[in-house]
Amino acid sequence: MWDGGYLAWRLYPDYPVMVDGRLEIYGPQKLAALRFATPRDVQRLNAQYRFGVILLNPTFHAPELIAWMRQQPRWRMVYADVSGVLFVRIGPDGSPPWPAVDVNAPGFLPPNDAPRTSLDVLREKTRIRLIAALGLEERALAEGKAILERE
Hints:
This protein is mainly alpha-helical.
């Protein structure tokens, strides 16, 4: 919902957006029906709407859901940072419309070396949860340790 307005503008007509920030249009019942937190929720909604892309927010969606999506053979992760993880459906020809993210690339999720603010604590927590969800447990532990040592 947070990014739906931008995505509606950027991806239309190839990818219609399921929901955006216009709460007055959807209403609380519709928003509750569209909320997903578990793989079962994603499967239920995907069966109904046949998603082309799924954007998960690592702050609000559980790391287990991100990890589960990454394991799905019909989906590819094509973007990831602390504000969003974007998955696209594999096309009928077996290829995604965009290249997959290489989570082992040296520049993937570079650390934030700027002076810390109170908001950075949430970002650091989200970053470590995301790194762990992507199967990079050793890196997540090392970054968590480095944060603790800085304090």
